Amino acid sequence: MSAIRKSVTDKYARCHPCIPAKRLKTNLQGAYDAFIECLNSHIFPRTFVESVRTIGHEGAFRASPSLTQVAIIIDRVTYMGACELLRPPTQVSLKQLINSISIEGATALEDERRCVIGAILERQVESLGANLWKPDVQTVVMGLLSDCISMYDPVKRPIRRAGVMLKVLELTYYGGAADEDLRLSESAEEIDGLLNQEVCSLVALKIPRLTT
Fold it and tell me: Does residue 36 surpass a pLDDT of 80?
């Protein structure tokens, strides 16, 4: 990790030869903190929560210019944390904003915050897609996916949880983990259970209960 960190610092030093490496790192940290504060102060409309639940996070972030800008900031802060500042998954993850995210007109704040953070985490995962060839980025993405799964309750959000778990399966296969077969089997079993649960719920809505 120290060799990679030195490589990143050297790269910036070559791009900005007149700026000392220490100052470059300070500038990066300052920009990173500013982006985090920007996300922290943004007030998400409740329509964003509704959009995430109906059309998914991709469409939700395209719903308005301000939300599109939020998505761009998420991409930037994620890349900075994972590829420039080389932070561990727990520090790259924006799950850290769970207790401070503001939602206009929230009626069930805790549940709606989990929905917003889940969407943000999925955006973070996507933003690092082009860098998955880097082992350190794979580690970060696996951490982000783990946090995302924790945001989606298996009873309330089975489909979203199953979707994220499919990404875990893909990354596990892609990364070739030592316990790959076991993890794939366990994840596949849970995904199957989540999908069956959703099918049963839909069937129950369409078939009226029999009364005696």
Answer: yes
Where residue 104 falls (left for φ over 0; alpha for ψ -120 to 50; beta otherwise) is: beta
Q: 104 in helix, strand or coil? A: strand
What is the mean pLDDT of the segment spanning 4-9? 43
The structure's pTM equals: 0.79
What stretch of H or E contains 173? Answer: helix 158-175
Are 64 and 123 in contact by the 8 Å Cβ rule? The answer is: no
Give the other-Cβ count within 10 Å of 159's Cβ.
Answer: 14
CA 195, chain centre distance (Å): 22
For 24, 110, 111, 187, the CA distances from 41, given in Å and listed in that order, are 26, 17, 19, 36
DSSP structure string for 143-156: HHHHHHHHHS-TTT
